[in-house]
Amino acid sequence: MDEQLYRLRTSCRVCDAPDPVIVAPLAPMAAATPTFSLPGTDKTHPAFTQPVPLALALCRQCGMVQVPAIVSADLNYRNYAYRTTNSLGLPEHFRAHARETIDRIRPRPGSLVMEFGSNDGTLLAAFAEQGHPVLGIDPARAIAEAASRRGVPTLADFFGEALAVKLLASHGPAAILLANNVIANIDDLHDVARGIATILAPDGVFVFETQYGPDVIERLLLDTVYHEHQSYFALTPLSVLFARHGLEVIDVAAIWTKGGSIRVTVQRQGGPRRMESSVPAMLADEARRGIKNPAFFAAFNHRIKATAAALHAEIDRVRAMGGGVAGYGVSVGTCTLLAQFDLAGKIDFLVDDDVNKDPELVGPGYRLAVLPPTALIERRPGLTLVFAWRYADPIVVANQAYLEAGGAFLVCLPEPRLITGAS
């Protein structure tokens, strides 16, 4: 075991209760994914080849769901490769987010907007267009430099209390602090919460979006489960976290991103804004659903096994007829599905629309070629598994020639769905 690659957490990262119970024992997978970049190394690095334990653990005390194996943050994010602009629909979502947040919060003209985990600055650019000075914080050096060059000043650093103290002195307080699809990636949530409490203006708000844990479980959003995502939040444990640091949740809304997420608004305890009815309503709903009960996860585990069996049966049928098998979509979610459905040894090659993707996807025990979608016509696999299942409809539309030539698509999630030329 490579001690530098990961460590195991044995307590809840929200309430510090010992020994969260494993409720979803998943297959191990590599720490490295297509969002990963390790300059100066090749794909024999342990990050690509060593399987790291993966499981979901539940804190019975506060309801927090978390991955116990913690991969080094420096390894994960200093050379991060993913960019917001690469995600279909996300730039438009963030522009709408900026307009809605300004209309809802009504910050003073010219007040400072900050974001940690700001990536390429897409969201902050939308706030800058509305006349607000902005500052991004992101540990990925190359991405931070590129964002600064495009006019979104960005510090290449991790956000926490120490940095917040420095920023308060150099830039003043934030009227709006943002974080999108990043808080779930952080192990030390208390350091982040202290940073939030430090940098917020007295009437400021922290607005963040994150994957909604109960949706991951009930909708089988399995491709969002991997080591980068260390937490699967519900509002119940989030309320516990913020209360410990003099903060309070005042609004929450369900949003579409990642198949099921929430947008949460936080202020200082006793701040000027009233708590919206959405907060007690979601807390009551989570209690009704029993999110602190290990039984809540039983159907999730059953559906993983049933889905794997269904995928294997269709692959075996095509193989028996002499057909090949491909996969469509190369992402971190693809790595998850290859591991959890035990598919790596059953796929001949992968295709992806992004011409900038690495020509190989490498993981423990597999090395799969990544080709353009034209390979579906050139190689004629009998079956193509759609790992990028959220984009299945445009994928099918764009590849009608493959279907007309006798190929078939098998959409993996949320349940297997076979698409042929006839259908």
From TrEMBL:
- What range(s) does the C-methyltransferase domain occupy? 257-414
The record, for InterPro entries, names:
Methyltransf_Zn-bd_dom_put_sf, MeTrfase_14, SAM-dependent_MTases_sf
Against Pfam families, the record matches this protein to: Methyltransf_14, Methyltransf_23
Q: What is this protein called?
A: C-methyltransferase domain-containing protein
Give the organism's phylogenetic lineage: Bacteria, Pseudomonadati, Pseudomonadota, Alphaproteobacteria, Rhodospirillales
